[in-house]
Hints:
Layout: H1 2-19, E1 29-35, H2 46-50, E2 53-58, E3 64-65, E4 70-72, E5 78-80, E6 85-86, E7 91-95, E8 105-107, E9 119-125, E10 132-139, E11 144-146
Parallel strand pairs: 7-8
Antiparallel strand pairs: 1-2, 1-11, 2-7, 3-6, 4-5, 4-9, 9-10
Amino acid sequence: xxLLLRTAAATLTAxxxxxxxxxxxxxxxxxxxxxxxxxxxxxRSSTSLNAEYVVLKNTTRKPIQMEKWILRDKTxxxxxxxxLVLKPGKTVTVRTGTGDDGTSTVxxxxxxxxxxxxxxxxxxxxxxxxxxxxxxxxxxxxxWTHCP
Length: 148
């Protein structure tokens, strides 16, 4: 009787697992947040431009060489990464304005805003083959969006 119950339980468990949808693997570099509407008036000052940013995260257990990777918006504005190694589990913030690049923050060095407040799409592309790695889209709403 015990053997019969164990066999039935194992069969039910296997059937439940087979019927479950597979979890999609996270992209190696994931867009986790876009702050597309900097606070206050859009004055194009360095402070205002730098309050517009994108946060990317390395979701792997290995460092990723980001040199020549591209972050872009829907209309085609492109930020090309210079020599940056994104360590496992770490993030890098790409700010629209000017500043000194570091290991956790880099600057686009633009004098105008990139991300549209009424909706846009951010995407990250690998340099070797320009393969799209991740995207994040938003519509009209609050000043920022979290990307899953």
